[in-house]
Amino acid sequence: MSLKNVTIAGGGVLGSQIAFQAAYSGFNVKVWLRSESSIERAQPKFDRLLQIYLDTLEAWKTNPAAYCRGFSDEKDLSPEQIDELKARAQAAHDSIELTTDYTVAGDDADLVIEAIAEDPEQKIAFYTELAKHLPEKTVIATNSSTLLPSSFAEHTGRPEKYLALHFANEIWRNNTAEVMGHDGTSKEAYDAVAQFAADIHMVPLLLHKEQPGYILNTMLVPFLDAAQELLAKGVADPETIDKTWQLGTGAPAGPFRILDVVGLTTAYNITMLDPRAKDPESVQGKVAAILKEKIDAGKTGVNAGEGFYKYR
Known about the structure:
46% of the residues lie in helices and 12% in strands. α7 (216-232) crosses α9 and α10 (264-271) runs antiparallel to α11 (283-296). It has 312 residues and is of the alpha/beta class. The chain has helices spanning 13-24, 36-60, 79-95, 102-106, 120-130, 187-199, 216-232, 238-249, 255-262, 264-271, 283-296, and strands at residues 5-9, 28-32, 97-99, 111-114, 139-142, 162-167, 176-180, 203-206. The protein contains 11 helices and 8 strands. It has an 8-stranded mixed β-sheet.
């Protein structure tokens, strides 16, 4: 099964990264977005990613520590070879097609990667409509952070060609790709998606069974939850909580910096999956209120220029 034409559904933090990395790696990439306003919000993300790739590649010429695994499988490249990678990044940026049309998004797609909000109703509505516009060959993967592919497989109309492909943030640097099928996923589809991950310079991490949160988020989400609970209870402010973690463990970033990278909208949607978050007096409800206040103010994280920290 050969995958060449890739459609990403969603232009958020990870959707934009997946699209850019796939285009950078030579795939034909379209991005489906819900509305024209979504396109307007997505384009600056691609512009920002281009600048990150160009700046980091340029730094690599004189500083070997700037090398990122998602850029190249080879670590020792000449300045001329790195310039070729910079040209590839520019070409990737210029080639990505943004659309709100399901027919355009589905046309001749070999692989669709769904990276829309962590909202089961939105995902089901998307899959149901998408099924009307795809060729029989298309494989569908979800980048859901917490939801299981078995929950949505039947809604895709092709459960045997549906599975999960989960990326870490800053995929050009943290180049992991967790591949997780459900009981009905065919081996052919699973292997094709694992190969796609390798082809875009990711390390395929093969899960043997379904697990909410996969491997990475099974460990990461409780860590972020603990930090948010400390804030909601008034124990300490985000800066102090982050400093405590960094000084105590040697980690380069604390939980609130990580939340800004993840995006506070994603963090809020995950929080709201917990029924306790509907009670404003519960810790989970207080966490939800903190996140919602920032989201309503447009402070959704790194891509917005501000979250728990300012980035402008």
